[in-house]
Amino acid sequence: MTTKSVAIVGATGAVGKKILEKLLERNFPVQSIKLLASSRSAGKEIIVGGNTYTVEETVPESFDGVDLAFFSAGGNISKMFAQEAVTRGAVVIDNTSAFRMTEHIPLVVPEVNEHALQNHTGIIANPNCSTIQMVTALQPLREKFGMKRIIVSTYQAVSGAGAEAIAELQSQSGQFADRADSEASILPSAGASKHYPIAFNAIPQIDSFDSSGYTLEELKMINETKKIFGDDDLHVSATCVRLPVVTGHSESVYIEIGKVGITAEDIREALVGAPGIVVQDDPSTQSYPMPLFAEGEDDVFVGRIRKDPDHPAGFHLWIVADNLLKGAALNSIQIAESLIR
Amino acid sequence: MTTKSVAIVGATGAVGKKILEKLLERNFPVQSIKLLASSRSAGKEIIVGGNTYTVEETVPESFDGVDLAFFSAGGNISKMFAQEAVTRGAVVIDNTSAFRMTEHIPLVVPEVNEHALQNHTGIIANPNCSTIQMVTALQPLREKFGMKRIIVSTYQAVSGAGAEAIAELQSQSGQFADRADSEASILPSAGASKHYPIAFNAIPQIDSFDSSGYTLEELKMINETKKIFGDDDLHVSATCVRLPVVTGHSESVYIEIGKVGITAEDIREALVGAPGIVVQDDPSTQSYPMPLFAEGEDDVFVGRIRKDPDHPAGFHLWIVADNLLKGAALNSIQIAESLIR
């Protein structure tokens, strides 16, 4: 197998670091690794697997000789440099929202729509974290029973908002008694005009609001799910909520499948052994997924599988995954692995 | 107005204390107040509003001369003493699940079904906390537009599991770095065979499991909602999740109303000014309900009102209330106030 010259743009961020770690851990056939970030981080050293890497500033020439560039430095950086990297010969796997809904750019979760990679023209988009874990878990059900409708409520971790949000949660968590007066300057999002404490709270806003009253995070789940499944007739609606959890997104997912007469046990059987999925679903042993125990794990965990007593095709699932791994870094590397196969 | 001799059973618990506080705060016409609890708490002194109350052990004779007895000491205590209290002349307002689904016992949220009080035979049941805030918020919509279906995912506070659960969250919150190894001995429920940390986690189990795979908390929401609305044809399904929040339950509620052509603005207008409801719903000012700011408040807060883009009668609401107040103590006192009117 030919080895690849790899660049990671946004290498100092939470996801960028996980991409580097996972590349080494999964023995990706790397010839060289170039860590790129803003001029502010240039010169910084990152030690992974006993090796020291020095961060360089991202400039157009950074991509000369690069085969594969992972972008995870925000949508603006992707818009500025992704096409440049492609022009200089790289394939770009972009973890931002910059190109996800662009018609000719594949939006890929390998367990679901690996085939979409065939028509790529240089840029491949990695979906939003909360979308990835949901479609991974629903794909086996969609294949076997059909899928008509999805209504999801999320329980999302602060690490999705970056290292500063984690620090803010940690600091606020010490202020139990005067929790309502905790200082807040990051969440719900760094650019927002108002900030609220996340410790001992639940904030029903992730990203900014659209004129429809939905947040961009909710619209990502709605639109990306339809694109990945290639099904514009699928009904999807979403409510996205940030929680005082460090890492690990949870989702209460309600589905209406395309068949009646299916039992919760049928759903469970369709999920057991499916790629990337671990079923944790045994009430008798209080076995169900929880974000605290999904942190650091590659899999998507599914439990609380139940039939809606009042609807012949309705089911509940509780889906949990590490938002920095399957929700971001791992999925990006799985895309790269699919490409070189 | 004639004054009443009042007893509070479970007076040393979180809800019992709130009942006492609210009775005084709302100038309920009290002739005397008797605080009752287990023999373990007898002799304990409770100071509220400058007055000192001494806790007595609950025995059958405790209810002699009592007009109104609030029960909030667990279902077993209610089963042991509620009928005894009625026999001795008291009206019982029971905050446990002991009698909620008993056919001839009214299950009452005054804003919704005050009329059900007319046929009481001594015991009146106060619904489950998560049910109360949901039906309060949905009642004006049900009246105006009809209600066909409810799918709810909850985000529930630890104070619903008592003072020990609050202490456990506080203690675990200091263990940020080794959070997955936090000691846990209370949640998901004191009687469970396994316990999980709640700090930096989300536990998709409240109360124990039924053979259907639903938890008792979920079944309470499903069955109580149908009973309070008096509508067996209403479709209700629920997923209940415990969060690292001290007080304040949040709910992501999806509804299908009985009319099409209704807008989110119509829903908002139907809720503004409705009894017990405060609408906090302005994306332009990041105004939406959050549990951290609902703590200590009497009202049910509603926001994030949106139309499902893919369903002509589907809407989302985000409903937050103090689970110890409107979810328990306040609603019990509102029932008492309805009775004496």
TrEMBL record, chains A, B:
<dbReference type="GO" id="GO:0009089">
    <property type="term" value="P:lysine biosynthetic process via diaminopimelate"/>
</dbReference>
<dbReference type="InterPro" id="IPR005986">
    <property type="entry name" value="Asp_semialdehyde_DH_beta"/>
</dbReference>
<feature type="binding site">
    <location>
        <position position="156"/>
    </location>
    <ligand>
        <name>substrate</name>
    </ligand>
</feature>
<protein>
    <recommendedName>
        <fullName>Aspartate-semialdehyde dehydrogenase</fullName>
        <ecNumber>1.2.1.11</ecNumber>
    </recommendedName>
</protein>
<dbReference type="GO" id="GO:0004073">
    <property type="term" value="F:aspartate-semialdehyde dehydrogenase activity"/>
</dbReference>
<feature type="binding site">
    <location>
        <position position="100"/>
    </location>
    <ligand>
        <name>phosphate</name>
    </ligand>
</feature>
<feature type="active site" description="Acyl-thioester intermediate">
    <location>
        <position position="129"/>
    </location>
</feature>
<comment type="similarity">
    <text>Belongs to the aspartate-semialdehyde dehydrogenase family.</text>
</comment>
<dbReference type="InterPro" id="IPR000319">
    <property type="entry name" value="Asp-semialdehyde_DH_CS"/>
</dbReference>
<keyword id="KW-0220">Diaminopimelate biosynthesis</keyword>
<dbReference type="GO" id="GO:0051287">
    <property type="term" value="F:NAD binding"/>
</dbReference>
<dbReference type="GO" id="GO:0071266">
    <property type="term" value="P:'de novo' L-methionine biosynthetic process"/>
</dbReference>
<comment type="pathway">
    <text>Amino-acid biosynthesis; L-methionine biosynthesis via de novo pathway; L-homoserine from L-aspartate: step 2/3.</text>
</comment>
<dbReference type="GO" id="GO:0050661">
    <property type="term" value="F:NADP binding"/>
</dbReference>
<keyword id="KW-0791">Threonine biosynthesis</keyword>
<keyword id="KW-0457">Lysine biosynthesis</keyword>
<dbReference type="Pfam" id="PF01118">
    <property type="entry name" value="Semialdhyde_dh"/>
</dbReference>
<dbReference type="InterPro" id="IPR012280">
    <property type="entry name" value="Semialdhyde_DH_dimer_dom"/>
</dbReference>
<feature type="binding site">
    <location>
        <position position="323"/>
    </location>
    <ligand>
        <name>NADP(+)</name>
    </ligand>
</feature>
<comment type="function">
    <text>Catalyzes the NADPH-dependent formation of L-aspartate-semialdehyde (L-ASA) by the reductive dephosphorylation of L-aspartyl-4-phosphate.</text>
</comment>
<comment type="pathway">
    <text>Amino-acid biosynthesis; L-lysine biosynthesis via DAP pathway; (S)-tetrahydrodipicolinate from L-aspartate: step 2/4.</text>
</comment>
<dbReference type="GO" id="GO:0019877">
    <property type="term" value="P:diaminopimelate biosynthetic process"/>
</dbReference>
<feature type="binding site">
    <location>
        <begin position="159"/>
        <end position="160"/>
    </location>
    <ligand>
        <name>NADP(+)</name>
    </ligand>
</feature>
<feature type="domain" description="Semialdehyde dehydrogenase NAD-binding">
    <location>
        <begin position="5"/>
        <end position="120"/>
    </location>
</feature>
<dbReference type="Pfam" id="PF02774">
    <property type="entry name" value="Semialdhyde_dhC"/>
</dbReference>
<dbReference type="GO" id="GO:0046983">
    <property type="term" value="F:protein dimerization activity"/>
</dbReference>
<feature type="binding site">
    <location>
        <begin position="40"/>
        <end position="41"/>
    </location>
    <ligand>
        <name>NADP(+)</name>
    </ligand>
</feature>
<comment type="subunit">
    <text>Homodimer.</text>
</comment>
<dbReference type="InterPro" id="IPR012080">
    <property type="entry name" value="Asp_semialdehyde_DH"/>
</dbReference>
<keyword id="KW-0521">NADP</keyword>
<dbReference type="InterPro" id="IPR036291">
    <property type="entry name" value="NAD(P)-bd_dom_sf"/>
</dbReference>
<feature type="binding site">
    <location>
        <position position="242"/>
    </location>
    <ligand>
        <name>substrate</name>
    </ligand>
</feature>
<keyword id="KW-0028">Amino-acid biosynthesis</keyword>
<dbReference type="GO" id="GO:0009088">
    <property type="term" value="P:threonine biosynthetic process"/>
</dbReference>
<keyword id="KW-0560">Oxidoreductase</keyword>
<keyword id="KW-0486">Methionine biosynthesis</keyword>
<dbReference type="GO" id="GO:0009097">
    <property type="term" value="P:isoleucine biosynthetic process"/>
</dbReference>
<feature type="active site" description="Proton acceptor">
    <location>
        <position position="249"/>
    </location>
</feature>
<dbReference type="InterPro" id="IPR000534">
    <property type="entry name" value="Semialdehyde_DH_NAD-bd"/>
</dbReference>
<feature type="binding site">
    <location>
        <begin position="12"/>
        <end position="15"/>
    </location>
    <ligand>
        <name>NADP(+)</name>
    </ligand>
</feature>
